[in-house]
Design a protein that fits this description.
By secondary structure, the protein is of the alpha+beta class. It has a single domain, classed as Mog1/PsbP, alpha/beta/alpha sandwich (Protein Transport Mog1p, Chain A, 3-Layer(aba) Sandwich), CATH 3.40.1000.10. Helix content is 27%, strand content 42%. The strands form two sheets. It has a seven-stranded antiparallel beta sheet, with helices on both faces. The protein starts with a helix and ends with a strand.
């Protein structure tokens, strides 16, 4: 009888240790400049000035969040329209595939904030993964990018799935 009680106690400990833990990920929420989204709680809002310099006239950096020099997620407004090469998600995708060349990995259609868009994945020779999304809303173009060596596409998807633009 005592052996049965010990077995039940051990089983109870195993069940609680494996199934009774809190698997929720804590997040922070960014909300400014007409956009909002949730991102990992251990990340911070980063200075976007150097990123804006590299974007130039192609658009505006709305925000960058992440861990400096490790995992960086950026959200951008992109200049689109009749005089721009990036007026639809499919045009953006075609241009990006061409620009990335052998770094291109895959792409798929996605929905961001209720709008149809495209997602593209790339990887460079240094092992960095690049997860992009591009979509239009209310006549504006938006692009999101996660640059990382350590995070998976699941992190990018968890952020993208919370993006709201106005």
């Amino acid at each position: 009888m005592r052996e049965i009680l010990v077995m039940i106690a051990i089983l109870g400990i195993i069940v609680c240790a494996s199934g009774c833990t809190d698997n929720t990920t804590t997040t922070k929420t960014y909300s400014a400049d007409g956009v909002s989204f949730s991102y990992p709680a251990n990340w911070n809002v980063l200075n976007s000035s150097s990123t804006q310099e590299s974007v130039g006239d192609a658009g505006k950096v709305l925000v960058t969040v992440g861990l400096e020099d490790q995992d960086i997620f950026g959200l951008f407004s992109v200049n689109v329209g009749a005089n721009q090469a990036l007026s639809t998600p499919s045009e953006w995708l075609a241009n990006m595939k061409k620009a990335l060349g052998s770094d291109y990995v895959s792409s798929k259609n996605i929905t961001v904030d209720g709008e149809e868009g495209v997602q593209l994945t790339a990887q460079d020779s240094d092992g960095y993964n690049y997860y992009y999304a591009f979509w239009n809303k209310n006549g504006k173009g938006y692009m999101a990018l996660l640059t990382t060596k350590t995070e998976s596409q699941d992190v990018f998807n968890s952020i993208i799935n919370t993006v709201k633009t106005s």
